[in-house]
Amino acid sequence: MLCSLNEIQTLATKAARGAGLPWGLADEAGRVARWLEARGLSGLSALGSALEGLSAQDWRRCFPIPSGTIWRSEAGEIDGLLAGVTIADRAGQPLPFAGDGALTLAAVRWPLLTMPFLAGVAQVCDVRLNISLGLEAPAIGIGPQTIADSCRRIEKLSLAGSVRIEQGQIGELPQSLPQLDGSIPVEIEVYDRLNGWACRTYVPESAESQARGAGGSELIETD
Amino acid sequence: MRLDRLGAFHQTRLSFLRAMLRHVSAAGFRFGYDRWEIGDDGVGTAVYAARGPDRTYSLVCFAHDLDPSMRTDRVIAEAWDATYVLYDGTPDDGEIERLRANTPKQEAGRFRHTDLILSRTNKSARLFDHVVECLASGRQPDAARLDDVGYVMRTTAVYGNGKFGIADRQRYAGRAGFGGPFRMEMLTVWMIRQFVADLVDHMARVGGGDTAVPLDPALRRRLGIGNSTGLGLGPFVVNHPALFARWIECRELALARVCAQPVATEESWAAYRQWIERAREAVAGWVVPDPMQAERIARLATDLDRLAAYSDNLARDDSLPWAKINGWAAQSLSLEGQELVVSLLIEPHGDLVDDLADRMAIDDAEMALAGVPGTAGDVLGRIEDRFGWALEPDYQTRDAQARFWYVSANKLEPRLGERWEEPGAALELPLATGRDIAACHADLRNGPTDRSLADFLLRHPEHRHAVRRLYDPDLGRYGQIRDNLIGADLLPLNLLRCKLAFFGATHFDPKSDRWLRINMFCHAPFPDELDTQPPDDWIYPQPAP
User: Which of A2, A4, A210 has the highest number of chain B CBs within 10 A, making it the mutation to test binding with B?
Assistant: First the structure.
């Protein structure tokens, strides 16, 4: 099916809330899904899978503990969305990847979801970041609100053993993904899965709400 | 910024439908039919084109045969008298067929980025048939009867910004004249008004043949497009605080520019005096059954009498005359009166303020700005300095949390529930801004004040949405409604009225504390009259000589 970006963002926000995240984090999830889908990356699909994992446990334990140069979580695996939030909140403060240093996130679920936050950090700090997810593969370049098309190879990556973040050379990002123009194709299964979570945020009508005319319009007479 | 004041706002020159009309007129848009395939039964398809200097927009209209028993303004309705899409460009036959398969289904249809706005209208059963019958028999309808309702059809929804797959606003926000808020929505409603008037004439011809007469243009202009609005509109101004702040800021800026004028010009003073008379006439015609609003309108009429008398005693070359009037009104008039004075002061000053209408939108950043600065202590100070209003209610009392906002599973629309009597409060929408800031404040006080805000949010992710609001760089002075939006004394109608005033609606007609009827474009020129009628001199028409 074809979706608008606003529809994607709203769906993702509601789904994250329906999966148990508080509204502030759900809002971040909506923005991440929109950012990724606007660049042709399957953000909704990754988010849907991440929410499955988060809702099945105490999601608070999936935040990275921001200490030292290697960040780990209490749960053993860091959630990609929560990793991004934690790093982005610290933009402008000394982060391990400042200068010649590096920040390593140990065991990240759905690392795709971290990337939009890093593009935000690159914007605020005016830096370019290189993201490595293993020794063999070349790093993924991230600039201010841009990402290299090499990001495609982590689209479906459910677990990265480690995610290493370093500063790269300032300059034009080679082969950055363009923003799509027009409706965004979304697989119906992905939409339905997210919508299943979203529906958990809706309140079924009760006898009390019906009697009160909660929306007001129940009382409308045509004339 | 208090809710009762927002709920007394009136339209101004900056209102979105007026800004849209000024733009299409100035840009030289031409309007016409591309297709009129409406049968004798009133069913069929029509396409109207708005041809601008750079682009054409097409209103694709589907007129239906609706069983009167199915006619309802409720959002759960599944059929309407007419349904519409504003299309980006000129649709070919294939596109019209695609729209025919989806548009009549409204929320149940699927759309794409070429489809800019989705809407539907229902007939006023009181007036539509009456006007058709009059015209079919060769006579014009009675003006008073037209004024009594004010429209022959009303919209029951106007959807934009990506709903059901239609275009995101960002797709056209960069186009000249359409960057202002809700401009495409307003263009759609204005073109719908033309279709509705043409449909009335068509049905009269079908019924009366050679006897039928078209609706007299002067009578036709008395008809706007009605609208029923419920709580669905309410959360918007809370959920888009930076955008709403910009609306208020522009309105305040317009007033400040006017009040800073050292003297009034002869022309602006004469226009102002005339606008008072026009407003008096409009207020005299603003008749509603709701006792509370009727009382406010009666007081407003008295306020206008007093404004006229006060202005009699001023001279246009008095020092700072507009500031004097505004200051006097703030001390002397009801809220309705004070806010109407704002509109009247701004009205004769188009040259001074109209540019602000193009500055009322903001570009939503894709990602929130990275970085939450400062320490927990900094936020504590910020809340106590600037959000003290949020700490005032005692949220432990039942009344302070009497309501909760939620989305209904049946209608997928925002609703207001009674927290202590209805289930569902666990699924509350984050609209309780004051209570949530107060809860954040309490946790900040209970922890170390020297830890970073980022660390506080790691420990308390449940406060993230409150902190985002506290630190939104675009909020400025006007981003917060300083009232408890879940209190027992909340009047949700105020939220609706405020937004509708920014749209440019008139004739607010409350039907309960949570829904109302309004009129849009009443007295405005029609698209086929832009060459002969001024585009922006109609909001309160000239009193009859």
Answer: A4
Portion 147-166 of A in contact with B at CB < 8 A: none
Query: Per-residue confidence at A134, pLDDT binned at 50, 70, 90?
Result: confident
The domain of A100 spans 2-178+185-201
Residue A50 falls inside a structural domain? yes
Measured between beta carbons, the chain A residues lying within 8 angstroms of B404 are none
Q: At what angle do helices A5-18 and A23-38 cross, to 10 degrees?
A: 140
Is A170 a domain residue? Answer: yes
ipTM of the complex: 0.95
Average pLDDT of the residues in B126-143 = 96
Whose tokens are 């008295």? That residue is: B302
Residue A212 lies inside a defined structural domain of this protein: no
Which residues on A lie below 8 Å from B416 (Cβ)?
A: 214-215
- Tens digit of each residue's pLDDT (9 = 90 or more) over B485-532: 999 999 999 999 999 999 999 999 999 888 899 999 999 999 999 999
Cα–Cα distance between B498 and B496 in angstroms, integer? 5
Interfacial B residues in 340-399 facing A (CB < 8 Å): 366-373
In whole angstroms, what is the distance from residue B200 CA to residue B314 CA?
48
Residue A220 near chain B (CB below 8 Å): yes
| Chains A, B: CB pairs < 8 Å | 203
Q: What is the DSSP string of B456-481?
A: HHHH-GGGHHHHHHHT-TT-TTSS--
Question: Can you tell me the mean pLDDT for B312-325?
Answer: 96
User: What domain count does chain A have?
Assistant: 1
pTM of the predicted protein model: 0.96
Q: Is residue A150 part of a domain?
A: yes
Inter-chain touch A6–B162, beta carbons under 8 Å? yes
Residues of B in contact with A34 (CB under 8 A): 366
Contacts B152 to A, Cβ<8 Å: none
Flag whether residue A79 sits within 8 Å of chain B, measured between CB atoms.
no
Please calculate the CA angle A160-A166-A171 and round it to the nearest 5 degrees. Answer: 120
Contacts of B112 (CB under 8 A, 6+ apart): A2, A182, A183, B165, B166
Cβ-based neighbour number of residue B318 at 10 Å: 14
